[in-house]
Amino acid sequence: MVALPARDMADDDQDQHAAGAEGTATIASRVASICAMLEEHDTAETPMSSRQVEEISAMIDDVAAAAASESEWTTTGDSKRTSNKTPGCMRSTCCYEKLGKIGEGSAAVVTEARHLTTGQTVAMKAIHESCRSVSGGELLREACLMAACLGHPSIVALHGLARAPGTENDDYSLVMDHAGPSMDRILGARMRYTGWPFSETEARRFMAQLLSGAAEIHRHSIVHRDIKPENILVDGAGNVKIGDFGSAMSVAGGQISADAYYAAGTTKYSAPEMLLETPGYDARVDAWSLGCVMAELLTGEVLFNEKSASDQLWLIYDVLGVPGKEAWKPHESSFVASRVPLWRREQRRRRRKGRWHSRWLRELFPEELLSEDGFKVLKGLLTCNPDRRLTAAAALKLPWFADEDNAPVKNYAAM
Ligand SMILES: Nc1ncnc2c1ncn2[C@@H]1O[C@H](COP(=O)(O)OP(=O)(O)OP(=O)(O)O)[C@@H](O)[C@H]1O
Ligand SMILES: [Mg+2]
């Protein structure tokens, strides 16, 4: 389950907060029930009929409307949504002129398009045919999870789903704001042209926005599971937005099957407990990924860059320390269990030779690169034990973000 951080609030705000919390709970439970419906189709391996897709798409529109009205964020996200569609009917791709490919991931291709009536530029995501499930519900799930967070300025704004006229079932696209190039591209270009990554001040501003976006996702009992530079988009004003909810899951209410807790997302940015496929992993897997992103913003390099889960775990433990017997207990039946005693032995050997110490992360991020306050955020996010790791909301309360000039888009510490 997602551990929602305790938030301080003034007495005056309590009624408003109670109403807001109720709205959040309703949105989270609506999202969970739509996801459960989609899961049933997946389990039964039955393709959805056009009518079922239409119905679920309408439910997603309702979630989006509820989220937008509940949202306290002063964003243009919702007002910009192309809304001239018949209520209850899916949008048609005929309303958009396709302009060209803007991105491609392992599962989908994203095209830039212009709405013919409003002139607004959008991004349209379609799943590669080879990656579609029998039920064809991937984009519906992704849209539903995005809809819950609609209105937050650090999350890509959903417009809805659109189908090409005359097509059936799974042949539809997800329409969203065209949010700009990915952080991966921006950082890569910066490294190529200047040779320098981002300064601490720049990294702090990005991190404030990303943590605020992640806290909003978690507030709706959603775990993103794939936060990484390729899935962070940077708009023209230099603001960052979290996108690609393709691996996200709802953890609101109900029983979640152990099968749902697989190593989703991308190995290089995955928290140890996700690599270990620990059932019940929660929103703190996203906090870990944000720690990896923060490290990369400051150095221009991927911090833990291995391909296989077991090599990645060793790399992480090599820097942060192999877990002790107590901390390792929940993972005793995991696929690397037989290696952990060897890793511990290796670390003891290195420690004797003076080649390993517990401040190794600080060696990689010395004071010249990152102040003590900044390091507390990095270290708090990159903590192997999820029970001791900072949540996104808790990270925003640390002194690194206290300076007004560097205030997050909206500081959760103030709520
Ligand atoms: N809203 C958007 N605005 C602009 N570009 C976008 C948008 N959404 C996605 N992109 C671009 O398209 C690329 C692929 O999109 P996305 O990450 O959603 O696909 P994916 O196949 O699910 O990715 P992955 O390989 O992470 O699973 C992104 O890395 C980004 O460059
Ligand atoms: Mg992606």
From TrEMBL:
Keyword ATP-binding: yes
EC number(s) per entry: 2.7.11.23
Record-level Gene Ontology MF annotations: ATP binding; RNA polymerase II CTD heptapeptide repeat kinase activity
Annotated catalysed reactions: [DNA-directed RNA polymerase] + ATP = phospho-[DNA-directed RNA polymerase] + ADP + H(+)
Residue numbers spanned by region Disordered: 1-22
InterPro entries tied to this protein: CDK, Kinase-like_dom_sf, Prot_kinase_dom, Ser/Thr_kinase_AS
Gene Ontology biological process: regulation of mitotic cell cycle
Broad enzyme group: transferase
Any one GO CC term of the record: nucleus
Record keywords: ATP-binding, Nucleotide-binding, Phosphoprotein
Segments forming domain Protein kinase: 96-401
This protein's record includes keyword Metal-binding: no
Similarity remark: Belongs to the protein kinase superfamily. CMGC Ser/Thr protein kinase family. CDC2/CDKX subfamily.
Protein name: [RNA-polymerase]-subunit kinase
Lineage per the UniProt record: Eukaryota, Viridiplantae, Streptophyta, Embryophyta, Tracheophyta
